[in-house]
From TrEMBL:
It comes from Candidatus Gottesmanbacteria bacterium RIFCSPLOWO2_01_FULL_39_12b. CDD domains: HMA (cd00371). The lineage of its organism: Bacteria, Candidatus Gottesmaniibacteriota. Residues 3-69 form the HMA domain. This is HMA domain-containing protein. Gene3D superfamilies: 3.30.70.100. The keyword Metal-binding applies. The keyword Cytoplasm does not apply. Keywords: Metal-binding, Translocase. One of its GO terms (molecular function) is copper ion binding. GO terms for cellular component: membrane. It comes from the Bacteria. GO terms for biological process: copper ion homeostasis.
Amino acid sequence: MIKKAIFKIEGIHCTACVLNIDGQLEDTTGITEASTHYAKQETTVVFEKETITPQEICEIIKKLGYGASLISSN
């Protein structure tokens, strides 16, 4: 089943940060789409709930060096 989650991101300083987050997430098995909004400091992720959880996505973002917390998930 496809789900969508929104994460608050801390530490985005430039468009390279956005590309880094989106690229890493989209290369992760189970994630079909990632879109980071620089001004809002948020990332929206479309994922397969059978393959990956919002908590695991949050940990991936944190391993990249950014603060991350789940805002919402449906």
